[in-house]
C-alpha cells in the first residue's frame, strides 16, 4: 500500500493535536488535516500554566515525560519564538503527603529520572525568595521547568503549516464516518472528509463527540484557573513550584511577573453535554485571588506588594485511574485517542503527539503504553463512574 496517499484527520487544535500533526508531517507518511471548532489553542492549551516535571506516578508516565523533557529542549531550537524555561520543577510536600511520594523514589532511580530531596533550610538557601515552612519537603526535578503557552502554541502551529499540515479553524466536527466497522472519515457542519485514520484530541469534548459511536471513556472534566501578577520590581529567580500543601502552584512568568494556579476542591465536576460548548462560558469566584494571596504570601513574600494582571480559566480532564488515555480503540479500527492527561496535558504534549503519530504510521510505539490504553477500563465501571457527579477533590490529584 502506498502510505503517502493516505490521509490522517486530527480532531482538535490544542497542543496534543498540533503535536500529533507536527510529528506526522515530519514523518511525511500521510496527508495531515487538523480541524478545530475554534482557533488553534482555543481549548485549555492557551490557558495552561505550562509547567512540566518528569517525576510522575507510573513507570509509563515517567518514561514518557523523559521524552517530553528532551523534546521541549529540541523544540526550543526548532520553533521560532519559543524557548523552554529550564528553571527546574520543585514539588512541595508536607509531612502527611510525603510518605506516599517517597514510595515512588525507587521508580525514579530505576528509570534514571534525576531528583533531589531537599529540606526547608536547603530550599531557603537555594531560592531565598521562597520561604517554605520548616515541615516542608521538596522533591526537586532539575530537568523540569515551564513553557509559555502564548509562545508555544503559535510557534508550533506555524511549524505545522510550514510542514504542510492543512489546518482548518472554526469548523465543528459533528461526527465520525464509519464504514464496515472502520473509521473512514469525519463529518463537519459543511462536508464529509474521507480519512484512513482519525486522531481524536478534543479533550473535554471527547465523550460528547464519541458517544455517537458508542464509545464512553471514564473521563471527568474539572474547572481550573491560573492568575498572573503585574511585573515585580525585579524578576524572581525561582523554579516552577507545585505546592500541593498550599493548594496550588507558582512559577515565574514572562515580563518579570509571577503565575499562580489554585485548585477549587469543593467545586463539582464540569459536565460537557454540547459539541459547541465554549470555555469562555466558564466562571470562577473573584475570592480566589484573595485565597491565593493568603495561601501563598507566607511562602512567596513578594506577592504581598503586587497586583493581579490577568486570569485564565479552562478545564482539566482526569481518567478513572488518574493515568492518561492514549492509543488505538479496539472496537473502531482507524481511531486513535489522546485525552485525560490530568493537569499535565501541556507537559505530555510533545510525547503524546510523537506516540500518536507512531501509532498512525505503523501501529507501534517506541515505549510500552499499555498502561494508557483506552481499552483498559471495564464498561460497567465506566458507566457507574460517569453516572456519579463528583467534587474536584474526588478526582485523582495529580499536578503537572
Ligand atoms: C488553568 C490551567 C492550568 C494548567 N496548567 C498546566 C500545566 O502547568 N502543565 C500542564 O502540563 N498542563 C496544564 N494544564 C492542562 C493543559 O492545559 C491540558 O491538559 C492541555 O492543554 C490539553 O491539550 P489538548 O490539546 O489535549 O486539549 P485542548 O487544548 O482543550 O484542545 C482540544 C481542542 O479540541 C477542539 N474541539 C473540541 N471539540 C471539537 C469538535 N467537535 N470539532 C472540532 N474541534 C473540536 C477545541 O476547540 C480545542 O481547541 C492546565 C490547564 C488549565 C485549565
TrEMBL record:
<dbReference type="Pfam" id="PF01266">
    <property type="entry name" value="DAO"/>
</dbReference>
<dbReference type="InterPro" id="IPR036188">
    <property type="entry name" value="FAD/NAD-bd_sf"/>
</dbReference>
<keyword id="KW-0560">Oxidoreductase</keyword>
<feature type="domain" description="FAD dependent oxidoreductase">
    <location>
        <begin position="9"/>
        <end position="359"/>
    </location>
</feature>
<protein>
    <submittedName>
        <fullName>Sarcosine oxidase subunit beta</fullName>
        <ecNumber>1.5.3.1</ecNumber>
    </submittedName>
</protein>
<dbReference type="InterPro" id="IPR006076">
    <property type="entry name" value="FAD-dep_OxRdtase"/>
</dbReference>
<dbReference type="GO" id="GO:0008115">
    <property type="term" value="F:sarcosine oxidase activity"/>
</dbReference>
